[in-house]
Amino acid sequence: MTTAHLEHVLDIVDEATLDALESLAHQAAAAAGELLLHERPADNELQVATKTTPSDVVTEMDEAAEAVITSLIRTFRPDDAIVGEEGGTTAGLSPVRWVIDPLDGTVNYLYRIPCWAVSIAAQVLVDGQWQSVVGVVHSPALRSTWHARVGSGAFLDDADGRERLHVSGQTQLSQALLATGFGYDAARRAEQGRTLAHMAPRCRDIRRAGAAAVDLCWVADGRLDGYWERGIKLWDHAAAALIVSEAGGIVTDLAGGPPGPDVVIAANSGLWPDLVAELKVGDVLGSGV
Ligand code: LIP
To answer: What are the φ/ψ torsions at residue 178 (nearest 5 degrees)?
Structure first.
């Protein structure tokens, strides 16, 4: 981010407000994480419903976690807008909106696979575009919290303490460890499988962890060299995309614009051109990134 752009952001939301947003994001993510980790009912009692397809699940814990987060936001910042995966959008009167995925990686959570996270972003409207200024991705089962504040870098808090994050320096696609994910719709997954078949022989290897926010944070901390996924939602990437950019990476769509519902691509700037070029070929072959 340029200094001029950061100054423009700070004209809208000053450092003291950023302090408050950062503190609330961490507090809300920690509270939701505690609930998800320690108050989950037994498998035979866990209430599970479906959304867009029979495999697109939402549990009572997704909804309970979002309730904890929104309650804290409404207590401390009642005028802010809220966009939540489970609760929809609530308009606000302030220049701040919160984008919440209370449980990213719901299927992993359901199957007791630890790769899931609470994702919370605070955004402000800059030149007509909502921009994340604070992002927290908290994964209690992975004992990791990735976080960033605009202009102040990205960090990982874990058992080893706090580490400043930098994306990997891998610029060769053939040596790049990539990650992706698949949608809940079978026809979409067939298309994504064709793109995967195109990409697999052209990179080092591919991981599919099942939580976009964690995939993106692994790009930020260098565990992955790149990531792409089609069809993820704003709440999946709003926090983690800031963490990637504050770690020196870029997060875009296929044309190099802001990430969106078509596709989200994350990498260091040296790898990004070849990754995008190959995805474009793969997309044509696979008819769906
Ligand atoms: C998930 C994403 C993941 C994607 C899954 C699902 P959810 O979000 O984080 O990257 O591959 O299909 O969309 O549904 O667990 O919040």
So the answer is: -110, 165
User: Rounded to 5, what percent of the chain is helix, strand, coil?
Assistant: 40, 25, 35
C-beta 236 within 6 A of ligand 1: yes
pLDDT digits (tens, 9 = 90+) for 23-71: 999 999 999 999 999 999 998 888 888 888 888 888 889 999 999 999 9
Pocket test for ligand 1, best of 111, 214, 236, 263 (most atoms within 8 A of CB): 236
Bridge partners of 98? Answer: 82, 122
CB 236 within 8 A of CB 212: yes
The predicted model scores a pTM of 0.95
pLDDT tens-digit map of 222-270? 999 999 999 999 999 999 999 999 999 999 999 999 999 889 999 999 9
For ligand 1, atom 15, the nearest C-alpha belongs to 105
**106 within ligand 1 shell (Cβ under 6 A):** yes
